[in-house]
User: Fold these one by one.
Assistant:
Number 1:
Amino acid sequence: MKDKYANYWEETKNHTLINRAWCIENPKKYKGYGPESWGLTASYSVKGYAGHAPGMDKDLGVISPTAALSSMPYTPEFSMQAMKQWYNDLGNKVYGEYGFYDAFSETDNWFPKRYLAIDQGPAVVMMENYKTGLLWNLFMSCPEVKQGLKKLGFESPHLK
């Protein structure tokens, strides 16, 4: 979708690429960061719940898998690389019966086995959207949604 302010696909993709680039650059030299292990967003941390983001004051050395997994439609190759690396190399330290845990820090050897619905939901939904577009298509098929988005000045192939 886009409006007079932005192309939201491009904005989301660019923010994802910034997040990944920060983890590759890794200016704070955290263990485990790199092209195949990235993803900063709000999650648990060694110091409690925190908002993680690129930036010297916002990066606490904690990877939140949902950041990369929920970005799959925008950066499928990079998101898949991260998912495979965590699953294959870190295994049950970061993955359990219901999928990937909320967060981990290789620097602090911190691997809590905690799930949050705000992680699991977006990751699964966005993987399905990447695969088939199912949830986006269902949402955009609602007449009320189409009408509201048109009134707000959005453009989308779904609105034609």
Number 2:
Amino acid sequence: MTIQFQRTVPVFRIFALDKAKEFYLGFLGFKVDWEHRFAPDEPVYMQVSRDGLVLHLSEHHGDGTPGSVAYVNMTGVRELHRELSDKKYRNLRPGLQQQEWGTTELAVIDPFHNNIIFGERTEAMSA
């Protein structure tokens, strides 16, 4: 059988489910695909997604490290920036960064110091 990689799913450590939902659902526009707990008072492990981007969020000790980074190649980064700016989220107002290597990037930091950098190729790379 041929080896085929299908999808990478970053796991971000979270510490408060309500803050995670406010950020990922309310601000970034993700939806909850599923949540799992071993018991009602146990930590949550959940999947959120938006337009093909899937993230796992975990309250479990040892699942991910605060300050992790995920780089997301995408199209429409300016539209995403406009969408997020229009929400006037009180904890973060990310800007666009034009990188010298030919991408326009939008970096967001969640309440647990995890970083997502959304990048779109906007010009050809020079040699």
Number 3:
Amino acid sequence: MTTATELTLLGTEELEGRLAESRRELFNLRFPAGDRQLDNTARIGHVRREVARILTVLRDREIAEAEAPIFPPPQPSRRCG
């Protein structure tokens, strides 16, 4: 299981890859669960939480990017003498 702190250290492309992989795993876990053939039913909850963590980190980055200043702040002038 990956923690949110570990996820923040990853790049956006890698996070999107993990998100796709986790969603695929969750999709594949639902069929055996519906037929009552899934041995570890807790795995569905773990994968759902991992998807939520990844989405949260991606959204935090999106918000931070939107709030970033468009132009850098002016630098103080350095006058000698």
